[in-house]
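Give me structure tokens for this 168-residue protein.
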Amino acid sequence: MKLILALTLLLSGNTFAEERAEVAKSFMKALQKELMTGMKKGPKAGLIHCNDKAIPVTNSFNNDKYEVGRVSLKLRNPSNAPSDDLKKVLSKYSSSSAKSPMEAKVIVLSNNEEVFVKPLYMKGACLNCHGANIQSGVKSELQKRYPDDKAVGYKLGEFRGLVWVKKK
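Here you go.
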């Protein structure tokens, strides 16, 4: 899949930003596919499957050409904590929503590194693990896996965080 993506980008003459946008889109599709695979057995199974697959999927997109990740101000996984630069960007996006979205774009960090960021807005399936009314089985599994979880209480369409892509 990544080889096809790389060839498509090479042949299409995409700009630097478009190239990273395609990587971000493919990354999110791969994560969503894993979530939906687990969700076929219910929300708790979806959480467990997603938790087991998120890091391998992320690592499969981190290579000698790109580094990708997800970041939020309300952390579930402390290893995804934003840098000071990304905290500022997250704050700028935090007032946006699916009804009033901000666009994905390339930003320049304080070290002059260019990073593509794409906002994530809460969708229906996401509320099973990130919403205000989480099922007790899911809630206990979240507590077990993420004892300091802050990534809950969201509403449909609310800004959740950013997907980012850096070119190496």
